[in-house]
Design goal:
By secondary structure, this protein is of the alpha/beta class. The protein is 21% helix and 27% strand. The protein is built from six helices and 14 strands. A seven-stranded mixed beta sheet has the order 6-5-4-3-2-1-14. It has a seven-stranded mixed beta sheet with strand order 7-8-9-10-11-12-13. Strand 8 (140-146) and strand 9 (154-159) form a beta hairpin. It starts with a strand and ends with a strand. The structure holds zinc ion (ZN) (2 copies). Residues 68, 70, 149, 153, 170, 210 line the site of one zinc ion (ZN). Residues 12-13, 70, 72-73, 170, 233 line the site of one zinc ion.
Length: 270
């Protein structure tokens, strides 16, 4: 079975619905990796609610990797249908302590932000899993690596045994040890999903915000020697026209890289 990568959320920071950005997508981060009838979800921005609208069956076992707990990466949880289905179990994975994952759910579902009485009172089951090294999750091999962000944040490497995809959202690819270790760890992956939010001139006033420029992302991709690079966490107001132009520019500048700006609901195959 071929591995497929589908973005249901490509937008960084805030969802930004507007007719000019519908090609690349308006929802905050959520990527689904599929192999046959098995899948893994990465991040739970508003895109995860959009993904669950596509699910024929909202019961069963769901496996969700969380990169970090910034609001744009968890805010969609309540809109993920299986969270409310009595016959579903939602497994959450991250390198963070299980207590920390539970604390986040305690806050999210405490009743301040919706009609909840705590995540334990939801119809579905929640299970929290701390990743300590490599793991097999729903038949996929998964490992992780720390990224440069304003708070702890992790990249994931996912393999079905044939192809390897690396997801590295919310990463500022400056030349430091964390980025060098990340490059070494990701080297040779078939597909790299990399944070790319800014033009160089925008970055000047956003240094240290934990995100990369287009060139920083492409330079990482070059060093990683990946076959396909998908740029994501698009700046909220970046229009389809602008992203089309950026993609054209980057493909000219880096002809050896198969670089694309990630689009919502396109099936990418590594
Ligand atoms: Zn983010
Ligand atoms: Zn973040």
């Amino acid at each position: 079975m071929a591995l497929e990568v589908i973005f249901y959320g490509t937008r960084g920071s805030i969802s930004a619905p507007h007719p000019d950005i519908l090609k690349y997508g308006a929802h905050t981060p959520c990527v689904v990796i599929v192999s046959g009838d098995r899948s893994l979800i990465i991040d739970a921005g508003f895109g995860i609610g959009f993904y669950s609208d596509h699910l024929a069956n909202k019961m069963g076992e769901f496996h969700i990797l969380i990169s970090h707990f910034h609001w744009d990466h968890i805010q969609g949880l309540n809109y993920f249908g299986p969270v409310h289905h009595p016959k579903s179990t939602n497994h959450f994975y991250s390198p963070f302590k299980t207590e920390q994952m539970q604390d986040v759910m305690d806050i999210y579902f405490d009743g301040s932000y919706g009609p909840f009485n705590g995540w334990e009172a939801l119809n579905s089951q929640f299970a929290f899993h701390r990743l300590s090294h490599q793991a097999v999750i729903n038949g996929f091999n998964v490992s992780f690596k720390a990224l440069n962000h304003t708070d702890p944040c992790y990249a994931y490497k996912i393999s079905d045994g044939k192809h390897t995809v690396v997801y590295a959202s919310d990463h500022e690819a400056i030349d430091n040890q964390i980025n060098r270790d990340f490059i070494e760890w990701a080297e040779g992956c078939d597909m790299l999903i990399h944070d790319a939010m800014y033009y160089d001139n925008e970055y000047e006033t956003r240094t240290g915000w934990g995100h990369s420029t287009f060139d920083m992302a492409c330079n990482n991709a070059r060093k990683i020697k990946t076959r396909t690079t998908l740029l994501t966490h698009h700046e909220p107001l970046r229009s389809d026209v602008e992203l089309d132009a950026i993609e054209r520019e980057l493909r000219q500048k880096y002809p050896a890289l198969n670089v694309l700006c990630a689009q919502q609901e396109i099936v990418y195959k590594p």
